[in-house]
Amino acid sequence: MLPLLLVALGAAGALLLAGAVSAWWWCAAGPLLALTALGARDLAQRRDSVLRNYPLLGRVPFLPAAVRPTWRRYVVERGVDGRPYDGRPYDQSVRALVYERAAGAEAEAPSGTGRAVYEDGHEFLEPSLRPVGVPDEPPVVRVGGPDCTQPYDMALLNVSAMSFGALSSNAVLALNRGAALGGFAHDTGEGGLSDHHLRGGGDLVWEIGTGYFGCRTPEGDFEAREFADKAALPEVKCVSLKLSQGAGPGVGGVLPGVKVSAEIARERGVPEGVTVVSPACHRVFSTPRELVRFIARMRELAGGKPTGFKLCVGSRRQFLAVCKAMLAEGVTPDFVVVDGSEGGTGAGPPEFAGTVGTPLTEGLMTVHNALVGAGLRDRVRIGASGGIATGPDIVRRLLQGADYTNAARAMMLALGCVQAGRCHTDTCPTGVATQDPRRVRALDVADKSERVRRYQRATVLGASRIMAAMGVRDAGGLTPDLLMRRVGPTTVRSYAELHEWLAPGVLLAEPPPDWASDWAAADPDAF
C-alpha cells in the first residue's frame, strides 16, 4: 500500500501548493490525482487479487504485459517479489489455458495455431474417422463398492486435496462454492473439516491424514466418535485416508508455524504459531491387513459412505500386499486415489521433488493392473492426481487406468494464484495461500468461485470433445491402444504394445513372469 499512500500524499500536497503558492503546481497535482484515482480503483475492483494487494505497484514493472492479460498475474508478481522462475510449475501454454478458461473462455474457443513437438517421448491420442457426438451432460462416475450404502457420483475432474491452513479461508470457501456451482467434489486435504469447507454447499471428500486433524485425541490418536459425527454431515459425501502424497511420500505434511493462526490451531488441535509436522505414518495400523480393516471401520463409522485411501506408489510389492489383504479380509475400499510424484505442495521437502515416489503414469498403471490381476478392479474406483490441468490430461489418465481425476495446482491458478513460490512464508500476494487477513481480503469469493466453476466445466467439456473425436461415447470405451508414444525417429507404439496389461484374476491363477516374484513376496501381514 505504500506507493499508493505516497502518491495520495503527494497529490494532497500538490493541491495545497497549487492553491497557496502557484498554479504551476497543477502540473504535478493533475497526474498525481489521476494515479490516486487509479490506485483507488485497484483497491475497489474484485477480479485481480494482485492489484488489490499491490495497488499501482502491480501495474508498473511490466506494463507491456497488458498486451497479454492472461500472463499479467504471473509476470507482475515476479517483478514485485523478485524471485526467479524455477521452471517447476506448469509451462506457459498450460498456465495461460487455465487462466483463459477461468476467465470464461469455452472449450470450443479458438486459440490460434500451436506448435507440436514430435521428438522421442511425444504422446498423442488416436482420433477416429467416425467421431461421435458430445454428451449433453458431463460424465460422472459412480463411486461405491458392494459394502457401500451411500454411493456418490463423482465428476471427471474435481478439486484435489488442499488443506485449510495451507490455503486461506477465502480460497477454501471459493473452491467449495465453485464445486457447488459446478457439481463436482472438493477434497478437504488433511487439515481438518473447517467451517469454510461447509459454508459453500459443495460436495466434500473428507481426507484424514496421519495427524487425524478434525478427529484427533489430545494425544494425537484417531477419535472415532468425533469422526463419526462429522462424517455424518450431509456435505461429506466420501471419506479418504491419506497414506502418502506425491510431493513428499514417506514424510508427514508440514504447516509452517507462521501460518498456524488461532483458528487453524483450534481446527487442528495444535498450539498456535508452532510448526505442525504430521507423523510419517499412521498409528492405527501397521500392516496391510490392519489397513483394510481400518478402511472397513471408517466406512462403518461414516454410515456406509464411500471410503478409500490416497497414496503415492512406491514398491509394487507393497501395493500387492494390500491387494492380498483385501482378498484375505473380504474388504475393499470404494476408491483409491493415486498421487503422482509430480504433485506439488507449498511446504514440501525440496530433496523429494522428482526424486522420491513413482510418477503418475507408472503409479496409475501399477494400481490398475494390480487390482485387475487380483480380480478386484470392478469393486474399486481409481482417482488420479498430480499435474492434471487440461482435457488431454484427463483423457490420458483415463486411458492409463483411472476412473476420474483431481487437480490442485490448476484449481489454484483458477483462483488467481501467480505461482510466486511464497506459500510457506504466509506472504502470498493473491490471498490464496496465506493466513494474513490483509492479504486474504484481496481474494473475492464470489468472483473466484465462478472462475473455478468455469475452469472445471470447460476442461471436462474439452475432455468430452476429445473422447468424441476418438469415437468414444464415454470413458468406458477408452483403451490403451488409443494412446500412442513415439519411441524412436521412425517408431510409434501404443500403450497397449508398450506396457503389460493384466487379465482379470490372472494373479490368482498364474501370475505373469514380470509380476510373479512381487506377487509371491507380497505379505498381507507386513509392508
Structure description:
By secondary structure, the chain is of the alpha/beta class. The protein folds into two domains: 2-61; 140-473 and 503-521, TIM Barrel (Alpha-Beta Barrel). It has helices at 2-20, 26-44, 49-53, 72-81, 92-103, 169-182, 195-199, 224-231, 262-268, 288-301, 316-329, 360-373, 391-399, 409-415, 437-440, 445-469, 495-498, 506-509, 513-521, and strands spanning 123-125, 140-143, 152-155, 157-159, 185-187, 203-208, 236-242, 254-255, 276-277, 307-311, 335-339, 381-385, 404-407, 483-488, 491-494. Strands 4-13-12-11-10-7-6-5 form an eight-stranded parallel β-sheet. The chain has a three-stranded antiparallel β-sheet with strand order 1-14-15. Strands 2-3 form a two-stranded antiparallel ribbon. The termini are far apart. Mean pLDDT is 88; it is low at 62-89.
What topology does this entry show?
Blueprint: H1 2-20, H2 26-44, H3 49-53, H4 72-81, H5 92-103, E1 123-125, E2 140-143, E3 152-155, E4 157-159, H6 169-182, E5 185-187, H7 195-199, E6 203-208, H8 224-231, E7 236-242, E8 254-255, H9 262-268, E9 276-277, H10 288-301, E10 307-311, H11 316-329, E11 335-339, H12 360-373, E12 381-385, H13 391-399, E13 404-407, H14 409-415, H15 437-440, H16 445-469, E14 483-488, E15 491-494, H17 495-498, H18 506-509, H19 513-521
Parallel strand pairs: 4-13, 5-6, 6-7, 7-10, 10-11, 11-12, 12-13
Antiparallel strand pairs: 1-14, 2-3, 8-9, 14-15
Helix pairs in contact: 1-2, 5-14, 5-16, 6-16, 10-11, 11-12, 13-16
